[in-house]
Amino acid sequence: MPPESGAEAHFRALESLYDSAPINRLFRSRLEILDEGVARIAFEIETQHHHAAGAAHGTSYFKMMDDAAFYAANSLVTDRFLLTTAFNLLFTRPIVAGPVVAEGRWVSGRRRVLVAEARLVGPDGEEAARGTGTFMRSRIPLSSLKGYAAAAQ
Prior knowledge:
alpha+beta; Thiol Ester Dehydrase, Chain A; 6-stranded antiparallel sheet; 3 helices; globular
């Protein structure tokens, strides 16, 4: 099978970058960039993610939704790492345990600022949260990041 090139190579390099982030040692998860502007993160809510009342703490919701929206947006940008400048989050229902999916989708913008949305779907298939983020291009070249560069070669 020939090596991937173009958009597919960029998507795989972004997935590798995600895997290389130290924070993801705390949150076992798997990123898939499905298409330009579309990302999905599968993860498991376990008791270690709970707040004192026995359901997932909001940090789990935010982290996965921010990442899904971020990678959906960064799938459109091949030269620079994006930075989250704002993220609005609406919690609609608690998640106690089980497999969860964060779905990210690019909404608008391609130059300096990009907007993407995300939603969290619980193990019952129901939406548990939704949010919108804004992301701007940084001065950090993607090619300078080890997790990205190793996969892009």
